[in-house]
Amino acid sequence: MPKIKSYSAHTIIVFLAIVFPMIVSMVKEDNKPNLVGLLMNYEKPKFTKEGWFSGNLQQDIDEYNNDHWAFKEITVRLNNQVYYDFFNQIRVNGFVAGKEHYVFSEPYIFSAYGDDLLEEETIVTKLKKAKVIQDTLKKKGIDLLLVYAPGKGALCKEFVEDKYVHPVKTTNYKMFADNSKKLGVNYLDLYEYFLQLKPKSPYPLFPRFGHHWSFYGECLAVDTIIKHIEKLHHCDLPAYGWDGIDVVDTARQRDADILKSMNLVTNPPQDMKLAYPKVYFENDSLKNTTRVLTISDSYWYGPVYMGIGRSCFAGGEFWYYNNKVIPSRSSEEKTETWQLDLKSEVESNNVIMLLYADGNLTNFGNSFIEDVYEMYTSPATFNARKERQKNIQVYAKQIREAPLLLKKSTQKSKDLQISLDSAIRMDAMKMAGMIK
Hints:
This protein is 48% helix and 12% strand. With 436 residues, it is of the alpha/beta class. A hairpin with a 5-residue loop joins β1 (95-97) and β2 (103-105). The N and C termini lie far apart (61 Å).
């Protein structure tokens, strides 16, 4: 009899352990976890005949319940804390921990050590096309500028874990810079500028817990870019500067963007003195007339938040990875570049600037150079190709804007070890009936 009671008590405990989170999830009104950087489906799947018979409905419901169960946040944070405290690992996709609490995007470490090398012929071919574009646009009074930005892996090598360190023969950055000079392509080398600046900079150019250059480094980069464009395009842009600097030990702006995504229970101490210039742009409508279109990676988000497009570049847009248009032209939906007429867009600007950090040079321009080159040298084939791709782009846009679909594409990119863009394209082609 006592054994039966003991067995029943154990059974009850196990049963409660299983059902308790389910009960809490049902009675708790908001089960949305407060986590940063995790792709989640916030809209509960609705019953449809197609979803039922395809078998996708139950899978979607399971995905939703997994994202919204009562203890999702605390279990994720506890798991991340254990990996960070005991193994010096951070649970952020594509990022690794370095020495002294520095965090790095792993591809940027590979770039710094030349582990992602392109064939030099590939780079030369791209730059020769850029030179054709540069010469074509110059006849129309438009200047093309390529900007090579430094990544954290290159500027903070002393904090990279030893397992990544080895002698460097060459890098994509060096091949891009050297061949740009040889071919006469307009370029600005922020990479070399930051390397020279680092030993004498009074404040960090890259923060410990951030992916991009520090806000202070960003301000220096913007100042250098403005001066370079004024010289290249023979124009006078609104004055840019700052009237004082706040120095604090708690990161502001984007200087701890990865720390937030680490989703820890207890964050490590922030003891790095970071500088925050009090930035201003001259308010002069007569000077703010040089429209600059910027095609860039996430490094350009900071200057956009600073207001450079509106206050200095005559309302010039930012095309994020040559895909998303920022700011969007519609308040109702996001605008993507494939929806625009490329020729009229390019020719409505005074300067076209492509700015990429070294970790993204393997896909420099995200086909912008190839598209514009074909548009000017073979308009018939360009127009035919763009028309064929429209159907795929419609579905790709749907995927990017639907959390559940984007989550599935993200998982596919991890499973197949391909880029997210490639995974989205595969799923879009499947939705368009082009592949099974």
